[in-house]
Amino acid sequence: MLQTYHTEFLTGTIFNWEHLLVNDVLKNVIISSFEWLVQNKKCTINAFVIMPNHIHMLWKISDGFERKDVQGALFSFTAHEFKKHLKKKDAVHLQKYFVNSSDRDYQFWEREPMAKECWTEKFFRQKLNYIHFNPCQQHWNLAASPEEYKWSSARFYETGIKNFSWLSHFNEC
After folding, report:
1. What element of type H or E holds 43?
2. Can you list the positions of beta strands (E) in 51-163?
3. Do the beta carbons of residue 142 and residue 149 sit within 8 Å?
């Protein structure tokens, strides 16, 4: 059955709120996954930010795909790559994610990521601003201004510089 989705605000959180995503190699895993999803026409991505222990994004699942499959591809692929990287580079850190549950030995993402449909432009813009200003929040202090933070779409929206070829401005949709 064909599905038609609205743009969604999605939050994925690292298991136990660990700060796994301070590592740029692992941030690049997420960027590569975003790129693959867009190139394979599974979704469009309008905004994102990668924080030390979570990600936020504004995305729209493409017609004909199921949310659970596209979302599952994102979180499954990244988890597999995180595990592979930690096995090679930091086996001690890998043990923080050991769960030995019936369906997996390691868990990198909290189950049931939060997804909220953007029914209004006001809600969309609120979430866009939230995403872009997240690294500037005092408790994070990752950047003085949104466009300074490399792991976000803020620079694209503020300057027009498109560092991520797969990113779509919300006015393009």
Report:
1. strand 43-50
2. 54-61, 98-101, 104-106, 114-117
3. yes
Q: Which residue has the tokens 């394979």?
A: 40
Q: Could you give the 3-state DSSP secondary structure of residue 50?
A: strand
Which amino acid, one-letter code, is at 90?
D
3-state secondary structure of 30: helix
Instruction: Enumerate residues 6+ apart whose C-beta is below 8 A from 56.
Output: 9, 10, 11, 47, 48, 49, 127, 130, 131, 134
Q: For every one of its 173 residues, what pLDDT tens digit does the chain have, with 9 covering 90 and above?
A: 456 889 999 999 999 999 999 999 999 999 999 999 999 999 999 999 999 999 999 999 999 999 999 999 999 999 999 999 999 999 999 999 999 899 899 999 999 999 999 999 999 999 999 999 999 999 999 999 999 999 999 999 999 999 999 999 998 75
Beta partners for 167? 45
Residue for token digits 């064909």? 2
**Residue 10 contacts by C-beta under 8 Å, 6 or more apart in sequence?**
55, 56, 57, 58, 59, 71, 113, 114, 115
